[in-house]
## 1
Amino acid sequence: MRVRDIDWETWRAKDPATLVFVVKDSSILLIRKKRGLGAGKINAPGGRLEPGETPLEAAIRETQEEVCITPLDLSYAGVNLFQFLDGYSIHVHVFKARDFEGEPKETDEAAPLWAPVDRIPYEEMWEDDRLWIPLVLKGVPFSGRYVFDGETMLDHELDFDSMGG
């Protein structure tokens, strides 16, 4: 299956979700996921929206639950749509936070870790991350569509505003 094989106009994800990248002092807050989709991988705090919740509300709540901090000064960075061959699908709203309150702490869901923005451990992350996380860091809005077979990316399309606007 390829990205072009999917009618993205009518496609609806099983789960709407969020990711929050806290970037401060040339470092980025990441997590090592302990359970759920991508367990064992490095990612950003985030998770599924609850009924009636906006993506922004979910982004804040999930970050609080996973690493015990409240992200501040959030901006919408972009969107990623994932279709897995097993039928699972997820629509991920990506946010960037420029500050936070509290102290990151490990929970039963995630272990927080800081990485320099120029040394993000992509080799321990989802395959697509290296394509769009640099856009988050540069403030370039993006929209990505991906097809995965398990943890293997089969195809992708990534649209972004190369002017950074």
## 2
Amino acid sequence: MRINAVISDELVRALDAIAQEEKKSRSQLLREGAEKVIADYERKREEKRRQTKMQEAMAIQDRLREKAGSWDGVAEIRKWREIHS
């Protein structure tokens, strides 16, 4: 597929210099650049999704902690171990 894009002369000159040095076409450099932008976007989106899930998990833990009140889970486990040992 072909697309048209408006790019400054300065940017085109920089791309052409890199293309010449890397022995690649300008189009190839632009494709690689687009692939990097997409990969970066997907990585950031996944990180945001992970952060959201972590915040949700922390909110659940906070609600459970509130509901448990002064209940001491460690003490309960110790009592259970003493009874069953």
## 3
Amino acid sequence: MKKKYILIILIIFGVQCNIHSQEEGKIFTIYLVRHSEKDLSSNNSADPSLTKCGKQRSENLSVFLKDVPLDAIYSTDYNRTKNTALPTATSKDIKVTEYDALELKSFSKLLVDREQNALVIGHSNTTGVLAGLLIGKEIGAFDLNIYNRIYQVVMYNKQGRLHLLNTVSDCID
């Protein structure tokens, strides 16, 4: 009978230790996406809007993230990034917060410290780099013709694990 009580105490203690260890580290996920296709024929070449396909891709991103809990959405201060973020922000009733693409190291630290499920819209020369900073590995820019990547970084105890997802779009401008 004494062994039974000791076993019960150990089980209770073990469960409490397990609960405590889960509280020590929060799991959260950061999705990093390059803006959708930009209109290269635009008169505003420095800050073009999205093409028809770009708008469709942005809507598709919103559908992809429909059941994903998000606490924050970040975008650089460009039409193409803000308009890529807009469908998801609207569907989730989240305000888009701007970040400075020239300050990726400090922004990556902010993302880790805030421990939020977040969507980050960036550029071909920043999205992979930021994903690399979050996981502690060097990842460079990618080709200007690539729009279908979603970097999913799952964070736990300030350590990130990267999953590269690819989307399919059959839109033709």
